[in-house]
Give the backbone structure.
Amino acid sequence: MTEEMIRKQIEKASAYIDENREAMMALWEKLVSCESGNPDKEDVDRICEILKDELDRSGVKTATVQMEGGGNLLKGEFHGERGETPVLLIGHMDTVFPHGTLAKNPFRIDAEGNAHGPGVLDMKAGLVIAIFVLRALDACGYGKRPVRIVIAGDEENGHRKSTAREEIFKICEGCEAAFNFETGFPDDGLVVGRKGSCQAVMKIKGVAAHAGNDPQRGRNAILEAAYKIIEIQKLHDFENGLYVNVGVINGGTVPNAVPGECELKIDIRYDSMKKFEDVMERIREIAEKQTVPDTTATVTHMRPSEVMEVSEANLKLFEHVQRAADMIGYGKLKTKTVGGWSDSCLAAAAGIPVVCAMGVKGANNHSPEEYAIVETLFSRAKLALASIITL
Ligand SMILES: [Zn+2]
């Protein structure tokens, strides 16, 4: 296709968005008004049905993947028969708000043009954008690549109880690039890196003894823990993107006993797997080194979550989005890295370039003050369209 033809296609797709503003708003209201708190599987599965219906009516071949430990996952493919490598749209339908939140915080638009309601920003608007992007692609005659879509039902707990991770990895296979319509930032920062996280537990064993009758025999596990906490906290390296936080301490039984046991729970955030492995090595060294004689310590950790490293591939995809933005007069974007996890980490771990936070712009997500800037529902849809059409 010539550049002129591409330009025409983008114009047509943008016009589709302009013509469907009301329909987009109506779907947004419908999705926010259907509560889908992460632990409420029934609610999530209900919104999954609504989304499936919307996608089916957009010419997308969809399938619901049943999940037992979380909300179902919805996947789809649009123009699956095309020859070139597919592009992937990512989203999630669960929110952090439990059933009943809606009554106190219904969907509404305020005088400043901001929308409110549970999940209005994270990320029901993003789902509206993804669905209308697919419809606009259809309307403008786009046919270069198949477009895949995956909408998880249990993203907010990192798919900890389901097999959604494995499913998403499969969907990522062979894709050219992925765009995630997660919460957009007011400063137009697009996320090219997200930290991974892991929780570790250190168990310290001392010798319990009567604090009055037999203190010399005791080996104070809490005291040993105190030395260790200071060493562990020294590993925290904010500038270098490595966060270490001893967040929970449990030890001892009664004041008149030398405590024989103490347990520390540690949260670790890292921007590369290498940093995670290195810091765990250091934590194990701290476990082995004792200050209070005769104490011992062991360390275990849960499965470390995937990290979206700031890769060349992500930066290249970001530059592509910036060029698309320039084409439609969207303005300047910037790269951003954040601490929070998203499914983009899975796409990155699967080895495909990904740009996250392509959704509607807003602030305060995961809180009752969450809001989204209505006008950006349309501008971000156009940005995504231009980015896909020119890919
Ligand atoms: Zn989210």
Remarks:
- The first helix runs from residue 3 to 19.
